[in-house]
Amino acid sequence: MISLTSPVETRAHGWPAGAKLAALCAATMVLFAAQSLAFHIGALAACLALYAAPGWVFLRAGLRRLWILWPFIGLIAAWHLITGAPQEGAIIALRMLTAVGLANLVTMTTRLSDMIAVIRWLATPLRRIGLSTRALELAIALMIRFTPVLVEKGTHLSRAWRARSRKGVNWRIVMPFTLLAIDDAEHVADALKARGGLAPGTQAR
User: Fold this and answer.
1) b/e per residue, 108-144, with b = 16+ CB within 10 A?
2) Which of 7, 107, 129, 156 is most solvent-facing, going by the fewest CB within 10 Å?
3) What does pTM read for this prediction?
């Protein structure tokens, strides 16, 4: 499986995961509170500057992962142009790009084990009242690790569709994509069962 962590080592890789996640929460709250178009243009520019700071390889990897947002940006732009509210649409699109960009930046510069450690620390009160949090930790680890795998498989399906049809990719690709995801989930479930499932002593890696 593929990790979302960037192969380029940056200074941010050494920063505490909890501090980065707390800063991300604060920045997201500010983004949703701000209603100025100029503010959101500046915020996106600052976000892109953070991507560019470690170098071209890191910037290109980050932008490639954000490219998946283009259908949503297109829908938002089209809807607000039709309804006569282009500035409102621009603010929403810029806010989404910046928020997802910052979240992606944190993911790229934080090891999965550090993320899981933060989740485990946050879930400490649940363990103190007798609840097991291992399923939650494992689910988050699997979601993060499988996201790029599913994106890659979706890209392959789209290419296969274009190779066999003159029509553009449409909703009919949803069913085979869903079946692929279910098949992967069954394989992972079988692998977990073979290794003892969530029995004490197993760790999400």
Assistant:
1) bbbebebbbebbbeebeeeeeeeeeebebbbebbbeb
2) 129
3) 0.70
